[in-house]
Amino acid sequence: MRTCAHQLVEELWNVIVPLPVNEVSILLGSPSRLLFDAAQSGSVELLVILFRSYPDLIWKVDDKNRSLFHIAAINHHENIFNIIYELGTFKDLLAAYREKESENNLLHLVACLPAISRLQVVSGAALQMQRELLWFKAVKKIVPRSYIKAKNKKGEVAHDLFTEKHKNLRKEGEKWMKETATSCMLVATLIATVVFAAAFTVPGSNDANGFANFRKKLWFDIFILSDSVALFSSATSYCYISE
Q1: Judgement on whether residues 163 and 191 belong to the same structural domain of the protein
Q2: Are residues 169 and 185 in the same domain?
Q3: 74 and 146 both lie in a single domain
């Protein structure tokens, strides 16, 4: 269901569209860069409304000559990035972007850490590092192949820049994984202890021959099977985590 804000934007935009191109540009650029603020904050609904009736907005650039495509990529807004990515040949032209001053290409830009608010979309340093790596690989697929090994003015390759910028996050991720593994080992040990004891303390005691009184009951078979699975699973997980 569309929100009131969504409807308001559509109504305002319908008033703006008939205006001359230069007036539209002034409105979008003052008092702030509306388009780039929307791309930076992830306001995908707003951009969809604007693109639908004014496709040329995709070529707008900021003070550093970066398009909405680059702003979305830098800030890890997948929805906005995907919308522009689906434009076909346009994405190839946008992906070939390169900053004049620093000679950074799109891959260099996404190699840097995003804002904390974007990084904390997922919890846990290890998952954050995984998300960063997946995002870097996704952008790597669309840039020209020559850009993958290209160096900026500082002589940095995008991959090396990614490694350097994410060094602390990687260390935090390793620490997080070790702490999580320790907690899992503790839980696995407790489960194994309980189910092992349960295997020798069957419900209903035993008869004169030493057999369980309920051995012919269906629920007893289910109990034995469940206990065996729990013991095997906890023992296996303990061995796997401790390696």
Answers
A1: no
A2: no
A3: yes
The pTM of this model reads 0.66
CA distances from 87 to 71, 75, 96, 169 (A): 16, 20, 15, 34
User: Last residue of some domain: 124, 158, 173?
Assistant: 173
DSSP state of 98: B
Same-domain status, 161 and 208: no
pLDDT value at residue 168: 92
Instruction: Report whether 195 contacts 187 (CB < 8 A).
Output: no
Question: Model confidence over 90-143: pLDDT tens digits?
Answer: 667 777 777 777 888 888 888 888 888 888 888 888 888 998 998 898 888 888
Give CA–CA dist 151/157, Å, rounded: 5
Q: How many Cβ atoms from other residues are within 10 Å of residue 112's Cβ?
A: 15
**Percent of the chain residues topping a pLDDT of 90:** 5
> Domain boundary residue among 148, 173, 198?
173
Q: List, for residues 180-233, the tens digit of each pLDDT value.
A: 878 877 887 887 787 777 766 766 666 666 666 666 677 777 777 887 888 777
What is the rounded distance in angstroms from the CA atom of residue 106 to the CA atom of residue 203?
Answer: 65
Region for residue 205 given its phi and psi (left: phi exceeds 0; alpha: psi -120 to 50; beta: otherwise): left
